[in-house]
Each structure stands twice: as structure tokens, then as C-alpha cells.
Amino acid sequence: MTTRTWTALTVTVLLALAVLAALNVAGQDRTGQRAQEEGGEPGRFDYYTLVLSWSPSYCAGLATPAADPQCRRNAGKPYAFVLHGLWPQYERGYPLSCAKGPDAWVPQAVIEGMRDLMPNPKLVIHEYRRHGTCSGLDPAHYFGLARKLAESIKVPPRFLDPGAGQLMNKADVIAQFLSANPTLTRDMIAVSCAGPGSRLRDVRFCFTREGAPRRCGANEDPQRLCRSASLHVPPLRPAPP
Predict the structure, then answer these.
(1) Of 147, 22, 41, whose CA–CA distance to 94 is shortest?
(2) Residue pair 154/180 in contact by the 8 Å Cβ criterion
(3) Is the dihedral of CA 139, 141, 146, 148 positive or negative?
(4) β-bridge mates for residue 203, sequence order
(5) Is the Cβ–Cβ distance between 217 and 46 less than 8 Å?
(6) CATH number of the structural domain spanning residue 193
């Protein structure tokens, strides 16, 4: 191999290493963690995101909604907002599935105790395995915190009216929650949409590790979560028992 060939090969390798190093730095947050880290270290994160899912949108996307407990009646009424999860987050990115096996097991008593906020028991199990294991808390304390934070958010009356569907814009959704929760500020809330007509998927609220409201991070970028300015809010419909 000639000297010129060796030189070209060396330059190519060095350039490739430089690109990989740049990508690695770009994918880290201020704690040095990767932007999305499968199997992160339990308890090592920056803040929480509480996710309240708009149940009618979820059910509208199912082929057989009656088969899902979330799409049935709750004390004779269809579900409105339900707790989807409480997600440990980095300032940029998030950890996932930080424990396996027995450490990710959720006791049946904990599952049943969350059914009023999370109607589908499979969701309770999934959320702890995927997100709760990264909190550093056992299932009882993790879901206890999730309940406390979810119950601290007052749902605006507009979303409890079982009438026809609504067209709203993202700013209006946030304004409704700010009016009902005057201790929050606009940068603490994010709105997500998906599906036909940009259905309202969920509303997200950011909290410190200790459970105090705080501004959201890069994960709650409003344009990434919902590019549409207007949202379709499917109505609460009578559901089969």
C-alpha cells in the first residue's frame, strides 16, 4: 500500500471518528447522559413530566374500543382525561427501562389501586417498567407520587362537558388549564396531538424531582409534540358498560 493510500485512509478514519464524537456530544444533556438512554441509572434524571391523556382521542383510534377498559364507563360516565404516566426526563432526552426482572414487578394491589386514574391495568405495568423504574422509586411510592401530581391538576370545566366535539388551538388549551390552575405558568405545560384532524392526544405538565411545578425542558418542544395550530377535541360519548 502506498504512502498516499495510507494517508487517505488515515484521514477518512479520523473524519469518521470526529463525526461520531460530535454526535455523541450532541446527544447528551447537561448530566452527560445520552438523549434517549435504554437502561439508564435509576434515580438519575432532571425532572418529571406528568402526562394526562384525552381518553376520547385514544378510544377513537382503536378498532374495538369496547375491549379496552379505558373506553368503558367510569361510574356511569365515559372517561375524560386519564393519567397516562409520570416520566423521568433529562433536560434533553430521557431514560427508559432502567430495571428488569423482579425490580420491575408491580404488585397487584398497586395495580388495582391505580385503576381509577389508569383504567387499563396493562398500562400501569407498562408505565412502571418503561418509566417508573428510572425514578428510583418502588411501585407504591412511584404511583403514589403520580397520583399526588395528577390530582394537583384541576381539569377545566370545558373538557368535562359531554357535548359535541370541539375545535381548539393549542394556546386555548393551555389557557384553559392556566385559568383552572393559577399557580402554573405557560412554560410548565405542553400539548400533544396526533391522528386525523390533529386530535388532542395529551396535555403534559412538568415538575421538579420533589414534585413542584417547573418549566418544561427540550423534550416538550411544542412544534415537535403538535405541529398543527388547531386541534380536534373528540367529545365524551356514552360508552358501552
Answers:
(1) 41
(2) yes
(3) positive
(4) 52, 191
(5) yes
(6) 3.90.730.10
* Cell 423504574 found at: 133
Is residue 121 within 8 Å of residue 160, measured between CB atoms?
no
Q: Are strands 94-96 and 77-78 parallel, antiparallel or unpaired?
A: unpaired
> Which residue would you say has higher pLDDT here, 237 or 224?
224
Confidence of residue 37 (pLDDT cuts 50, 70, 90): low
Mean pLDDT score of the chain, rounded to an integer? 84
**Residue among 218, 213, 173 nearest 192 (CA):** 173
> 60 is in which domain, residue-wise?
36-233
Q: Is the pLDDT of residue 171 over 50?
A: yes
Does 109 fall in a domain? yes
Task: Answer whether residue 90 shows pLDDT above 50.
Answer: yes
How many domains in the chain? 1
Categorize the per-residue pLDDT at 60 as very low, low, confident or very high, splitting at 50, 70 and 90.
confident
Query: What percentage of the chain's residues is helix, strand, coil (to nearest 5)?
Result: 40, 20, 35
234: CB partners within 8 A, 6+ apart? 54, 56, 57, 60, 165, 199, 200
Q: Which residues contact 197 (CB under 8 A, 6 or more apart)?
A: 232
Whole-number pLDDT of residue 92:
93
3-state secondary structure of 159: helix
pLDDT digits (tens, 9 = 90+) for 95-154: 999 998 899 999 999 999 999 999 999 999 999 999 999 999 999 999 999 999 999 999
Q: Which residues are catalytic?
A: 84, 127, 131
Instruction: Give domain status of residue 191, yes or no.
Output: yes
In a domain, 23, yes or no: no
Residue 27 lies in a domain: no
